[in-house]
């Protein structure tokens, strides 16, 4: 069985310019993703999809393959990530398991990646995603605003909830890993069009970096761990 790990890293990033190759703990974010794929012990090839020659060079320095460059129309701010996934699947030929490891979750471990792959290999789902317990709840302390600025509970519960602890547990999706099949990606257009299972990741390893503040928090966690 061929298991291919993919890292999708376009050059443009408005929230944190140069994000994908920005060093965290002396290693660029893309290097952390490459290391996690390698440390899982299950990924046969680590392939980077990028439109940026600088990202491609850093990826190769850290041991990943860059067998193709991503077309510009798939690397815009509004380009659906799913189409980049589909492009990569079509570029690399036949394989069995698709694993996406975004650069934005550099605190993941190889064990986290391995756990996601192993859950997928049990064979009773189309996609594995990763989650962490949500800090806020849409039936208790998350609100929406109407066109006059008045707030209301985002998802009103069927019964009164006076404490967050009494609300049903909900989870945030994280960017630690996505595992699926090439066929599912080619034949569908979104994650929840299939049967989805989830691996819960501890909050300290599920940081998703999109801004300078996110990066600073990840740096703090990494230094605290060391």
Automatic annotation (TrEMBL):
Pfam families noted in UniProt: CTP_transf_3
Keyword Zinc attributed: no
GO molecular function, one term: N-acylneuraminate cytidylyltransferase activity
InterPro entries, per the entry: CMP-NeuNAc_synthase, Cytidylyl_trans, Nucleotide-diphossugar_trans
Keywords: Nucleotidyltransferase, Transferase
Source organism, top-level taxon: Bacteria
PANTHER family reported in the protein's UniProt record: HAD SUPERFAMILY MEMBERS CMAS AND KDSC, N-ACYLNEURAMINATE CYTIDYLYLTRANSFERASE-RELATED
Protein name per the record: Acylneuraminate cytidylyltransferase
Organism: Pseudodesulfovibrio aespoeensis (strain ATCC 700646 / DSM 10631 / Aspo-2) (Desulfovibrio aespoeensis)
């Amino acid at each position: 069985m061929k298991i291919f790990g993919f890292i999708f890293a376009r050059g443009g990033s408005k929230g944190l310019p140069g994000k994908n190759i920005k060093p965290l703990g002396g290693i660029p974010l893309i290097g952390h993703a490459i290391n996690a794929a390698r440390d899982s012990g299950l990924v046969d090839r680590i392939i980077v999809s990028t439109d940026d020659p600088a990202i491609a060079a850093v990826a190769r320095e850290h041991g990943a393959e860059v067998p193709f460059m991503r077309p510009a129309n798939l690397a815009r701010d509004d380009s659906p990530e799913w189409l980049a996934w589909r492009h990569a699947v079509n570029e690399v030929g036949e394989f069995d398991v698709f694993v996406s490891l975004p650069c934005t979750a550099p605190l993941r471990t190889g064990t986290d990646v391995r756990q996601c792959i192993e859950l997928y290999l049990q064979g009773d789902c189309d996609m594995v995603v990763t989650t962490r317990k949500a800090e806020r709840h849409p039936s208790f302390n998350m609100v929406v605003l109407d066109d006059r600025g008045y707030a209301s509970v985002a998802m009103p519960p069927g019964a009164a909830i006076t404490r967050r602890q009494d609300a049903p547990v909900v989870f945030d999706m994280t960017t630690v890993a996505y595992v699926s099949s090439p066929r599912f990606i080619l034949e569908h257009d979104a994650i929840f069009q299939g049967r989805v299972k989830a691996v819960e990741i501890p909050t300290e390893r599920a940081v998703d970096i999109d801004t300078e503040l996110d990066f600073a928090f990840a740096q703090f966690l990494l230094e605290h761990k060391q």
